[in-house]
Amino acid sequence: MDEVKINTSxxxxxxxxxxxxxxxxxxxxxxxxxxxxxxxxxxxxASEGVYTITYGQQAxxxxxxxxxGKHRIDFTFTVSGTSYTKSAYINVYTPYITSSDFFTMxxxxxxxxxxxxxxxxxxxxxxxxxxxxxxxxxxxxxSLTIDGNNHNILHLPFAIxxxxxxxxxxxxxxxxxxxxxxxxxxxxxERVKQPFNFEASYYIRxxxxxxxxxxxxxxxxxxxxxxxxxxxxxxxxxxxPLNVQxxxxxxxxxxxxDDSEYRRHGIYSIDIDIVKMKMKDSFYxxxxxxxxxxxxxxxTLFVMDYVV
Length: 308
What we know:
By secondary structure, the protein is α+β, with helices and mostly antiparallel strands. It has three domains: about 1-95, Immunoglobulin-like (Sandwich), CATH 2.60.40; about 100-135 and about 245-300, no CATH class; about 140-235, no CATH class. It is about 15% helix and about 35% strand. Strands 9, 10, 11, 12, 13 and 14 form a six-stranded antiparallel β-sheet that branches. The relative contact order is 0.14.
């Protein structure tokens, strides 16, 4: 799976043994949350059996790939009267530190390690995400569908910074919009405010003072059992926190300098005369750099531990 930086262009290629009927191939881009991002759009014929689609910058200035996460491109075409679909996958990610910022701090590493920066940055990002129990990506204009399951408060897998719409039982004949930010009469849901990330929240709940259309006070207390709720809005982190950027910088420097060769394996003591290595009991709880661990403390949702 190709890795693509957020807010950049990407060309995806479909290769077939020969041209399909009418030399026609359409492409649709889907986000892993299930949202259709772009399409269907006609792919460009590059040569016999080879078709490409480029997801770049739009007239608005925004990039089509403006959201982190895995994306699926469905190519649809017809051969001998039968319709086929082939899929390709890309992963769009948010760099936690840029190469220019990093090499400003470590200019001595640019000549020898500059070409490998993206590799080390991706590795540091994976270490930080695992250590913190969350990623620091941004998912604008996306939707998540979650079972109500009789909960008083609905817990979201990603923090939501802007709540746009909540639909109960989407796609059903009896679907109901319980929250719409553009309609004053349908604002019965609220985010549970939390510190950090500009009050983005992992939780939504019914308002205690919601008023129905008949101006009667209603006090919904729970999301219904066996009802799905489609939550639309902007999810994740609008920007990478400074502490996370600094932690990424430290980890990348360690990786480039091989300073973490032993620490990465939890080794804290080595006897040279005989082969004897001692392992830290808590090495699964660390990024491998104590300073990075401290910087990430406020952003750690859970800490990994090894259960015997």
